[in-house]
Design brief:
The protein is 8% helix and 64% strand. By secondary structure, the chain is mainly beta. A hairpin with a 2-residue loop joins strand 6 and strand 7.
Length: 158
């Protein structure tokens, strides 16, 4: 006779370890970095997810404004993602990578982290609108240690 804990363990294992399809997406985005002055930011992201959990690589560039003393910022980040398994996907993300901040001839290249979140809204077929907010924590000696970015982009799921 099978014991109830054994049956429960088998059922739980079949749910947790069942094969689930992998999904991928690519986003091209444009946004703003508001401090110390509003500047343009653009980039792309490519990710893979297993329904709720996933990973994403993101590369972005924020323009420099020498007149207003606002440095340019290039980031390359690898992030983990937790997202809702629904057609409109809300998500939270956190990760780390490298950055390069530059203003005139001065520059700083080091490591940093980021946290953020957003939503992917279905438009038509595999096309989605992605809206995202990120808060960065830059290490080393950057001029601005906690830049923020808000962006919107076109996301293609496949």
């Amino acid at each position: 006779m099978a014991r109830p804990p054994f049956i429960a363990a088998v059922l739980l294992s079949s749910v947790l370890f069942a094969a689930s399809p992998a999904y991928a997406d690519i986003t091209g985005f444009w946004g703003l970095t508001p401090k110390p002055e509003v500047r343009s930011s653009q980039g792309f992201a490519a990710g893979v997810s297993l329904v709720v959990f996933g990973f994403e690589f993101e590369l972005s560039n924020t323009t420099e404004d020498r007149v207003k003393g606002a440095p340019g910022l290039t980031t390359g980040m690898l992030n983990g993602i937790v997202q809702t398994p629904t057609s409109t996907q809300f998500y939270l993300t956190a990760g780390g990578g490298v950055f390069r901040e530059r203003l005139g001839s001065a520059s700083e290249t080091f490591v940093g982290t980021n946290i953020g979140g957003g939503v992917k809204l279905n438009l038509m077929g595999p096309l989605r609108l992605r809206i995202d907010y990120r808060l960065f924590a830059l290490r080393g000696s950057p001029l601005f240690t906690n830049p923020q970015r808000l962006y919107a982009g076109v996301n293609v799921a496949f």
